[in-house]
Amino acid sequence: MLAALAWAYLIHLDRQMSATMLEGQAMAEMGMSMDVPWTITDAVFTFVMWTVMMVAMMTPSAAPVVLIFAGMQRKQTGRRLPLGLLVFGAGYLLVWSGFSAVAAAAQWALHQAAMLSPVMTAASPWVGGGILIVAGIYQLTPSKRACLTHCQSPLGFLMSHWRNGTAGALRMGVAHGAYCLGCCWALMCVLFVVGVMNLVWVAALSVFVLVEKVSPAGQTIARLAGAAMVAAGVLMWVR
């Protein structure tokens, strides 16, 4: 339900932004300056956009651990919607809200450095290629494998990180969010290359994250994707 609401908002936002982005692209192609300083409103709007986007992308892949946790909480409390479940979800989303703040700051920095096009893609192939190479290399690291292993075993995570009470639920939510962040942050950075609000790529990355976490071949898929990203980044540099 939460993911559906987030996607509905993103589609609505995309429709509103499309005309503005196309207008900005046309002005840039005519040599007109698009160097407009950000306001506080711009910063807040961008943070909200990233936060909603992370909710839309990450909640489907978090569903297994949330469902298992909900069942365990219902057995303990006898409530259909335990408070601990809401707190667990809040802790998980808190981590991704923190990432959204960092992503919004990065978008602002790229905008200020004139490295982001009006359609919110990396304006320089050197920047775009560099992002793909860094993201691809991370896909091949032990840190990625370790975080993905935790995300692939929701029951194992809960058994090894279980804490009682509301504070315990918050700690578990934050811990699981941290593992998910460690697993997926590099993939989210790819949006700076393909388009921050390119909903086709947002959907594609959402599906890829889900497949990584639920497929028995998730580790292999992650490594193959990493190699492909490195190759794509090098190709951007060569061209």
Q: From the helix content, strand content and strand pairing, which structural class follows?
A: mainly alpha
Largest sheet: none
Are there runs of 5+ residues with pLDDT below 50, and where? 24-33
What number of domains?
Answer: 1
3D architecture notes:
The chain is mainly α and 239 residues long. It has one domain. Helices cover 82% and strands 0% of the residues. The protein contains 10 helices and no strands. Helix 3 packs parallel to helix 7 and helix 5 crosses helix 7. The longest helix is centred in the N-terminal third of the chain and has 38 residues. About 4% of the residues have low confidence.
Key words describing this protein structure:
239 residues; 0% strand; globular; mainly alpha
SSE arrangement:
Layout: H1 2-29, H2 40-77, H3 83-112, H4 125-139, H5 142-152, H6 154-161, H7 165-189, H8 191-194, H9 199-214, H10 218-238
Give a short synopsis of this structure.
The chain has 239 residues and is mainly alpha-helical. The protein has helices at residues 2-29, 40-77, 83-112, 125-139, 142-152, 154-161, 165-189, 191-194, 199-214, 218-238.
